[in-house]
Amino acid sequence: MPSFKTPFQGYSVKFSPFHPNLLAVATAQNFGILGNGRLHVLSLSGGAGPAPITSPFSFDTADGIYDLAWSESHDSLLIAAVADGSLKLLDTSLPPTANPVRSLSEHSREASSLDFHPTRRDSFLSSSWDDSVKLWALDRPQSLRTFLEHSYCVYSVVWHPRHADVFASASGDRTVRIWDVRDPNSTQVVPAHDHEILTCDWNKYDECVFATGSVDRSIRVWDVRSHRAPLSVIEGHGYAVRKVKFSPHNARIIGSCSYDMSVCFWDYGKEDSCIGRYDHHTEFAVGIDMSVLVEGLVASTGWDGMVYAWQLGTDPRAPM
Amino acid sequence: MAMRDLVTGGAACAVPGSSGSANPLGALANALIGSSSKTQERLNEIPTAAIRTPENQFFPQPTDHLGALPGTEADQSLIRPNAPGSEFMRGFRSAEQGGLADVWDEIQGGVPIIPHDMRVGVDPRFPPPVDGPPQIMLSGLLHSFVDSSRGGMPFVPARLPMLGLSQGDKQCIRDRSTIMARHFFADKSEDFINTQVNALLQSLDIDGDVHAKSLAPGRFREMEDYWNESQGFMKHGPPVGDAWAAEFDQTRMNGPDAWAHSFEQQHGANGWASEFEQEHNQLATTMHQRGAVSPNLAAMEQSRMLAQTLAQNNDPKFQNSQFLRFLSKMSHGEVIFDDNRLKPAPGDWATEFQQQHNAGPSWADEYLHRGPDHWADEFSAEREKNAPLDDQWVNEFSQLHVDDWADEFGRKLAEGALGDETKDDWANAYDEFVNEQIAAKRQSDSSRGVYVFSDMNPYVGHPNPLKEGQELFRKGLLSEAILALEAEVIKNPENSEGWRLLGITHAENDDDQQAIAAMMKAQEADPTNLEVLLALGVSHTNELEQAAALRYLYGWLHHHPKYGVLASPAMPEVFYHTDVARLFQDASQMSPEDADVHIILGVLYNLSREYDRGMESFRRALELRPNDYSLWNKLGATQANSVQSADAILAYQKALDLKPNYVRAWANMGISYANQGMYEESISYYVRALAMNPKADSVWQYLRMSLSNASRHDMLEACDSRNLDILQKEFPL
User: Fold this and answer.
1) Which chain A residues are Cβ-neighbours of B41 within 8 angstroms?
2) HSE on the CB side for B9, CA within 13 Å?
3) Quick one: closest CA in A to B52, which residue?
4) Residue A226 CB: number of other CB atoms within 10 A?
5) How far from chain centre, in Å, is Cα B415?
6) Cα–Cα distance between A301 and A246 in angstroms, integer?
7) Are B144 and B327 in contact (CB under 8 A)?
8) Residues A153, B179: C-beta atoms closer than 8 Å
9) A223 Cβ under 8 Å from any chain B Cβ
């Protein structure tokens, strides 16, 4: 199946919401500690062939890129979260010299994650190591609102898939907070782990359910209505869980990647929850995504610089 | 006009004469935003509706080589027909009997034409590091912890030489490594992590006592501010006056320590640590009393368990992790970063450091003293060295995806792993693929300087083929001229002029590989021919071979009767762009009336991507030689490179006015139109170029892309069968 080697270390990978054969990867030099960053847009052959992944577009930044998000409104628009705290808006149809279309510099620390609003398509969220979450609109040069409540780095922020005003943020302060953009304060604080929480994601089918991944190596599934105890605790990763992602096609499937270098898929409703384990990365696996347009198509990236896209159930590295 | 057209750079909105790009509105907005961020509010250049067609989705990035030729003619921009991957894709496509053809077209449509008519020294896809931190950097840290925790050994910090990390870099390393370390070492206690991080930071000469980001940042925010304040002035510009400089130096030397002292005075030694501990204990006790389990205590308990697991982790994957080894090495000072690339540390650094260290302030003086210049030299040297990396990467890539696939495919085929009904298709595709490989190999052979002669040559035996060739060239009958000139060089292989003209003719006729091969023959016959040296310099520029280009251009200067004095008598082993450019600037001052010098400067600026200066040089050369059509083409190419496709069209038009049979300029014209999204227009120009040289394979490819981008699928068959009659009737100019 297709793979692509980036010159730096992979940090995040996401499928285009418009084209089934496109994905983008955010990379950073020297493991993101110091050096440049590069964002690649990658083109697959269409999922059915042994074709290589090609990179029709790339963009370089002065600091590592920690995350990216595809615009939900326009297929050539991307945002990169740069470690210097800036957010770069990129238009892949413009020449390299014309990019970034816009650079938003408000975060005072590393920008860690981005999420485009799925329905209110001109707005997006960013989170940062400066403990804040910011709400942006494409046509505004300044953020619309800053959500300041976390007491440590915010590693992940995700819009609720159904309620247009709701989002969740996961932080190193060991909490997940649920927010309503109309309210400056969080509506709910979930102390989800006893260690830093690196990631969270909403279930796409059950509006009350979200999952968290933590440095404590576990994935926990929560119901916002009763957050005293998790619905489910998934243990199986050997190191910190870097990213969790609910399947867009199946209510019970969660994908995750970890510093134990593996990418795993889980059915959180089952006792023996692991339904797939992929050990294709040779360094920390830090990025995972599941295609909305092609069921079962997943992608991962890691600090080995590799980007893989494969159909669930097949070997990411297997030849045709 | 529909918004979508505006945004996507549809044909209707490209105003001739304006500066064009794939997205004119975006470019305009960008230009405005670039000059004043205040204008952002009023400009909404970001598309909010409509999905673009995939063809427009990507700005066409250069995928490949550009041919330009020597002495007189040059420059064009084309995707190499056998670019890595594309060969493969073609084979693959036919294998699917059109099943994937659509997908392919989509992809192909997305990647297509190079906007660059004169290629530059550095592949634009891999620009040099942007604003990177200073050359020498040492990151590192984290994973020495893993090793130390695994082996149960405390980490022993090693002192490293002064690395010239800026305060910002240090802060970055300190903060990021601390934060990341917490992720990796959840199993360890805070104290352990802090101790280890501090030990490591010390070895990097980074003040690690204060973590800008500790687990409870609120508590330390004041300290952080204080710290930033105390460090803040260091980020200011260079010292202005002497007095200030002295003060600066002093503060710089004492800065962090002074801060530490003052803090100590205020709070006593270990002040905050004990304070923290105390508070921490209080907190724990209180929580305990309330019956709650302290998260920290629980964490520590869990940590201990994890630590045991960790220590037992013999997973070979971890043992083999590059990252772990990298950091472990880093932490021991075995590797350092130089211009973002790893290199082994000099063996005697420890002694060196010791000496410098013992010498007290002297090293600081020395550092300040020789810092900037030295650094700049080193940096530019490193940059030069970096250039070939791109090629390397491309090679690697093509190997990975083309050859591997071929092998793999052959193997599978042998195993009969593929179903019967697909077997024939695949087999055909494979044959096609192999043939293409052979063709590609032939082509790459010729790029290595092997000239491939035409089979049937009616001019062999002609009494004076050189004269005939010159005549045909003048008339613009390029394909005929090539045959005549080939006859000449078969007859007189030592005739440098014959080879040179042959090379130029090939370039004008759009065949770069042959052009370079011929030029190299010409140079063999006459190593000091200035025109040939210039031609080779230009063509290597187009081939992205900066080192070779600089060598030939330097050779030109070296052998020039007038400027030879500027060059040092011995040929340097390594050429630096800045040095060569400076020599030619000197030459242009010596005789501002020499158009050749301006041309070479223009080429050099293309190499360093200083397009504005490149255009200026070519314009100056054009003032001296207004009727040199190849110069107009070069100017157009440079304009296209700097994304001024509309201006480039004017320059190409000028070249064509002067030489109507200039195939390369016709093709370049088409490319410039296509780059502005004016596909219909581009088609006519491609067809015109092909009418003059139907052998220009690359132009056929562009034509195909433009046809599908303009939704003229009805004409694709005529294109594939290379039926020029139909195409010319359909797309008259």
Assistant:
1) 139-141
2) 33
3) A75
4) 10
5) 41
6) 17
7) yes
8) yes
9) no
Buried b (16+ CB within 10 A) or exposed e, B442-458: ebeebbeeebeeeeebe
Q: How far apart are CA B515 and CA B507, in angstroms?
A: 5
Give the DSSP H or E segment for B624: helix B611-624
User: Which residue of chain A is at minimal alpha-carbon distance from B413?
Assistant: A320
Long-range contact pairs involving B28-35 (C-beta distance under 8 Å, separation at least 24)? B29/A101, B30/A94, B30/A98, B30/A101, B33/A101, B33/A102
pLDDT digits (tens, 9 = 90+) for B431-457: 565 566 556 545 554 445 678 888 778
Token pair of B370 as six digits: 């020789």
Identify which of A161, A119, A125, A129 has the alpha carbon closest to the alpha carbon of residue A145: A125
Alpha-carbon distance of B156 to B195, in angstroms, equals: 11
Cβ pair A284:B61 closer than 8 A: no
Which CA distances in Å does B643 have to A60, A104, B330, B440?
18, 25, 42, 30
A151 at B interface, C-beta within 8 A: yes
Q: Tens digit of pLDDT for each residue in B321-378?
A: 666 555 555 544 444 444 444 444 444 444 444 444 444 444 444 444 444 445 445 5
Which value, to the nearest 10 degrees, does the dihedral of the CA atoms of residues B396, B398, B400, B406 take?
-150
pTM exceeds 0.90: no
Angle, helix B629-641 to helix B663-675, in steps of 10 degrees? 20
**What burial class does residue B60 get, using C-beta atoms within 10 Å of its C-beta: 0-12 exposed, 13-18 middle, 19+ buried?**
buried
Write out the two tokens for B128.
């040099």
- A101: β partners: none
Inter-residue long-range contacts of B286-294, CB under 8 Å, 24+ positions, other chains counted? none
Q: Is the previous residue joined to A118 through a cis bond, with omega within 30 degrees of 0?
A: no
ipTM above 0.85? Answer: no
- Rounded CA-CA distance B264/B388 in Å is 53
